[in-house]
Amino acid sequence: MPDKKFEEAMTKRFDDLEKLINSNHKEMLNRIKTVEKKANEALSLAKNNEVVIADIVSEMTELKSRVQELETKEEKSKEVESRLKEQLSNQENYHKTELEKQERVIDDVQNRSMRDVLVIQGLKQVHGRNENNWNNCCKTLTEFLSEKLSLDSNYVDRQISRAHRGGQETEGKIRPMFVKFICWRFADFVRTQLIGLHKNKKSTVTVQQKYTKQLTTRRNKALEHRKKALGESPDQIIHLEYPAKLFYKHKNTEEPYRLLREF
Fold this sequence. Notes:
alpha+beta; 14% strand; 3 domains; Alpha-Beta Plaits; rod-shaped
């Protein structure tokens, strides 16, 4: 017969072992439930993240589309702006050109209205005569033209509307005389004759038509260009014509003058 104490001890050991197993089993079940719960939470979070990611992707796609749309609009705006600037520039150039044309027309009218006004350089003042008034200037000019052009002094005097010296009196310097004639034809006659006398060295007096400041600037530029051109091509004849045109031809030829440049 087995020992009763041994049997009791074995029974107790099996009971303890059963309790331990049951305790471990419950603990494992609890751990499994905890893991399962966490797994479910992670799965739920992953699903939520997938939804969030999908929303972000959708928003990014929409933003990208909007950016492309804005870039397209910006390119079109730049094209429109460029065309508008070009049109504005063309309009400005057109109006500038038209304004210059109108200014040239007005300037031409002003210059033609001054065809009866001459500027005479080198005409000495008569000793003891006060030429700060028009009458004495007219008298000096009448005497000079009557002698040089062999004209009646009374006739010459009637052709002069007024005359005056320009600039301030300076010792040793001959002031220019500005003369307005009654008729531009007589003024042109005087101009032509005095130019001929000066060219033939029969007079030191020079003469030119009175021009506006604008045309004077243009003619001075033309004369500078003439001087340079003659230095480069001395075999040419270049002369200046109204308003500011340079014409040229070669020396010792019968060819007509050609337009060189207009200023």
